[in-house]
Amino acid sequence: MRQKVIFGNWKMNGNKEGLISFLKKVEKAIKKSDVKAGLALPFTLLETGINKAKIIDIAAQNVHFATNGAYTGEVSIAMLKEINTKYVVIGHSERREMFGETDDTVNKKAIELIKAGITPIICCGETLEIKEAKKTVTWVNGQIKKAYKNISPSDALKTIIAYEPIWAIGTGKTATANDAEIVCQKIRENLAKIYDEKVADQITIQYGGSVNPSNISELMSQKNIDGALVGGASLKADDFIALINYKK
Ligand SMILES: O=C[C@H](O)COP(=O)(O)O
């Protein structure tokens, strides 16, 4: 059975002092949880998070695929590895929309991260326009196919997928648990076509988009939803605790 993996994504929020007290409070409250908890932090908070967190896994929110070079403002995989980063979120819709992330760069990043032993959390998801045109599954499966290009079955097992419908991010509009489940199921079927059922069955697929303490239980009860990537509700310690300790 796949373990539930719930990651907060702080986006461009937070500071050192706040993170330290957040970790203290949250880790005390989730000690006995069987859920894997993680936090995707801004670059400047990564080292503090990695050094202070005992239970929570720390993720970066972006990385460059190149080894080094003239990429002003970017951070390399080796730089993240040097501080012991275990996960990196790639292809988040905000990075695709505002910072030129493409399916091709997502694929390059995934390949290089896997080589470095870092788990990529590969984001995918459709706009409202695509949803209304009833093209969600085609769109998302296209993103997945491109993200996994030239990735072997054994390496595919070292990845996580986050399905995040763009229209549900930060809007308070969550996909219904059933709608989210259907897309996650289709992603798994697509993985079975790219690889095989055994591989598809082992890959963690998270849902993201206005997840909060009141809808987490229903979302997590779905067969193909293996966790969540949570923005807004992960910023408050009490809400994050409620998410990790969700009622089963
Ligand atoms: O990475 C997280 C997602 O963008 C979801 O954000 P949200 O929970 O604020 O809607």
UniProtKB/TrEMBL annotation:
Its main location: cytoplasm. Its EC number is 5.3.1.1. It is an enzyme of class 5 (isomerase). One of its GO terms (molecular function) is triose-phosphate isomerase activity. Gene3D superfamilies: Aldolase class I. Keywords: Cytoplasm, Gluconeogenesis, Glycolysis, Isomerase. Substrate binds at N9, W10, K11, G170, S210, G231, G232. It catalyses: D-glyceraldehyde 3-phosphate = dihydroxyacetone phosphate. Transmembrane segments: none annotated. GO terms for biological process: gluconeogenesis; glyceraldehyde-3-phosphate biosynthetic process; glycerol catabolic process; glycolytic process. Pathway: Carbohydrate biosynthesis; gluconeogenesis; Carbohydrate degradation; glycolysis; D-glyceraldehyde 3-phosphate from glycerone phosphate: step 1/1. Homodimer. This is Triosephosphate isomerase. It comes from Entomoplasma ellychniae. The gene is tpiA.
